[in-house]
Design a protein that fits this description.
The protein is an all-alpha fold. It is 63% helix and 1% strand. The chain has one domain. The radius of gyration is 25 Å and the shape is globular.
Length: 468
């Protein structure tokens, strides 16, 4: 079988395991993203056509384009709404047993109120711990490289509405949950001094909220950047040059990734079947993941693992190929495809994207080709974009160091993949998916063949055939 062919369509003999998410959710989100970007790029014309008075919002006249940070956050809403609509109306995820909800229960409020009060106490205490962490780390308020102060401002605006809304939401949901005593209840019970709480439930609850608190701040901080570029860029001019066209396409792919991933971190909700089943319990998984994100980031320019000395970072490819348009277009197309695979991997998660968590097993889209399409495409992109072995300093030492450092980056992502698999293997659904991939998917089979070839050669060298 040609290793470059797509995986065979599922058959009755060896069908691919079902995916927890449908492809339609991600495409609905992309449709919402495109819709809002088009409106934002023609904001004054659209507002004028609708007859909306700009003075109502404090403007003398409408800005030509809505490129601000608030418009970028509104884009998250425009992405999330169609994703939720598709999930509820088409996929009907709220009816799945995996939600832990039985809509036929409908317990009286009086019956669940005691449980809900304890749970609300646990949730509010968790939010208080996250707020204390945000407040304690000055990085979140004075970051020069990342827009964390914007994220902190948004959290301040959201705090009171969330506190108020959490009360009716928890009481309403507890009426239908099969087991209302989840991790937040156990944490609240511990705070209340009860003796019927469970340590493992509390640890799961805290790990899940640590993931959400840490990564949501990062995601909101980076939401405005790509959106502002795409709304303000001169598309007609950008498409005339290979480098600017590549940059436009890559930024578009990353915008899809950031917007849909932010929706995923926001909507960890049981009625959407998008709740966190488990958060990675292994320290190695956390170390590998956090090394890739601020403020703990160890990778890239100026960090401990710097593979860009004497290069232009992700722009090195067009520095070395300058003057050769055919090569620039071809190389740029490869980088765009790699970024598109990365965005596709995020789309495949639907409402469930987040690091270090299990929120349902994916088997569709790029996950039918490899278990880690995002990591594979991202690392391949870096090697081809940075070209670490080519340096402007003329120093062989810099070229070797860069190559070694980027190899170390790839090793960290391999470590992340292995720790994620170790976590997910506790779910029989993932074990079934992993076994199917080893039998059918092209990339795992390709690497398995390489391992067999390498193993056979090693055995021949260790045990040579006797001479005749």
């Amino acid at each position: 079988m040609d290793m470059m062919q797509p995986p065979a369509k599922p058959s009755n003999i060896d069908p691919r395991p079902c995916s927890a998410v449908s492809s339609g959710v991600g495409f609905a989100g992309v449709a919402g993203l495109v819709f809002w970007v088009l409106i934002a790029r023609n904001f004054a014309a659209v507002a004028g056509a609708l007859g909306i008075d700009p003075s109502w919002f404090g403007y003398a006249v409408w800005p030509d384009r809505a490129s601000g940070s608030y418009a970028a956050l509104l884009c998250v809403v425009m992405v999330g709404v169609p994703m939720v609509a598709w999930s509820l109306l088409v996929d009907k995820v709220h009816l799945r047993k995996s939600t832990g909800i039985d809509w036929s229960l409908g317990r009286p409020v009086a019956e669940v109120l005691d449980t809900s009060v304890i749970k609300i106490a646990g949730i509010w205490a968790t939010w208080a711990l996250i707020a204390i962490a945000y407040f304690a780390f000055r990085f979140y308020w004075k970051s020069a490289s990342w827009n964390f102060p914007f994220a902190m401002q948004m959290f301040q605006y959201a705090l009171l509405p969330l506190v108020v809304a959490s009360v009716p939401y928890v009481v309403w949901l507890d009426r239908y949950l099969v087991d209302p005593r989840d991790g937040s209840w156990h944490f609240g019970a511990w705070i209340a001094g009860r003796d019927d709480w469970d340590t493992e439930e509390i640890l799961h609850h805290l790990r899940a909220w640590l993931v959400k608190g840490f990564f949501l701040a990062f995601m909101i901080s980076i939401v405005p950047g790509g959106f502002q570029f795409l709304v303000t860029v001169d598309v007609a001019k950008a498409i005339t040059q290979p480098v600017s066209l590549t940059h436009l396409m890559i930024t578009s792919m990353f915008l899809i990734d950031v917007q849909l991933a932010t929706v995923g971190y926001l909507l960890t909700m049981k009625p959407l079947d998008a709740h966190i089943r488990t958060a990675n319990p292994y320290l190695g998984g956390w170390v590998a993941a956090l090394a890739c994100y601020p403020p703990f980031i160890l990778l890239n320019n100026g960090q401990l693992i710097d593979y860009t000395v004497g290069t232009s970072g992700d722009n090195s490819w067009h520095y070395w190929f300058a003057g050769n348009d055919a090569l620039l277009y071809g190389w740029g197309a490869i980088l765009v495809v790699l970024t598109a695979i990365y965005a596709w991997a995020t789309m495949a998660f639907g409402l469930r994207f987040s690091n270090l968590t299990h929120r349902g097993i994916l088997t569709h889209g790029p996950y039918a080709f490899t278990k880690h399409p995002a990591y594979l495409s991202k690392n391949t992109f870096w090697w081809l974009a940075v070209l670490p072995f080519l340096v402007t300093t003329g120093s062989m030492a810099d070229a070797v160091r860069n190559t070694v450092m980027l190899a170390l980056v790839s090793a960290i992502y391999y470590w992340r993949a292995r720790t994620e698999e170790k976590h997910l293997m506790a779910d029989p659904d993932y074990a079934e998916y992993a076994a199917w991939m080893e039998r059918n998917a092209p990339i795992p089979r390709f690497f398995a063949k390489l391992r067999r070839l390498a193993g056979g050669r090693l055995r021949r060298e260790m045990h040579p055939e006797p001479a005749e």
